[in-house]
């Protein structure tokens, strides 16, 4: 029962936090007016993609928390903090360059988490692979926005 409650807590924190930030800092008119890089997906895709990724992030964090590995848990918290910072910086402050710095740091922290967990909990590491892929693509989009605007 304690494991189920702790998983529910991780899901509430990550999915709930991500959705709240997404609703508070929506792209809006400023973003709509920007020149977009090639292969920019339609706006409706971001919500389902991030919701799915947040579930995977929460499960990986929960598994890491259960393992008691404090160093890995710090890596997990760093990537989540950077993740939660990106939308307020880009869509709240309209700062694409700072957003690029944040997303690059996020990418490195995701990779560090995967590297840390790979030999200790391959499931947690594998849960981060789609996240790494999506953030790699999002980094391309963010860099494209910086260059084009």
Automatic annotation (TrEMBL):
CDD domains, sorted: TSPO_MBR
Pfam families in the cross-refs: TspO_MBR (PF03073)
Recorded topology in the membrane: Multi-pass membrane protein
Location of the protein in the cell: Membrane
Transmembrane segments: 44-62, 97-115, 122-143
Keyword Cytoplasm: no
Organism superkingdom: Bacteria
Keywords: Membrane, Transmembrane, Transmembrane helix
Cross-referenced InterPro entries: TspO/MBR-related_sf, TspO_MBR
Similarity remark: Belongs to the TspO/BZRP family.
PANTHER family per the UniProt record, alphabetical: PERIPHERAL-TYPE BENZODIAZEPINE RECEPTOR, TRANSLOCATOR PROTEIN
Protein name per the record: TspO/MBR family protein
């Amino acid at each position: 029962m304690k494991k189920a409650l702790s998983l529910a807590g991780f899901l509430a924190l990550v999915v709930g936090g991500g959705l709240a930030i997404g609703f508070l800092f929506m792209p809006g008119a400023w973003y709509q007016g920007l020149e977009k890089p090639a292969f920019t997906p339609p706006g409706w895709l971001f919500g389902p993609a991030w919701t799915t990724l947040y579930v995977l992030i929460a499960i990986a964090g929960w598994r890491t928390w259960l393992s008691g590995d404090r160093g890995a848990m710090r890596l997990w918290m760093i990537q989540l903090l950077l993740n939660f910072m990106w939308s307020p910086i880009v869509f709240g402050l309209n700062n694409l360059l700072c957003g690029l710095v944040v997303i690059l740091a996020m990418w490195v922290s995701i990779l560090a988490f995967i590297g840390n967990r790979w030999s200790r909990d391959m499931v947690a590491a594998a849960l981060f692979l789609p996240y790494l892929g999506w953030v790699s693509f999002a980094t391309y989009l963010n860099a494209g926005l910086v260059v084009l605007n």
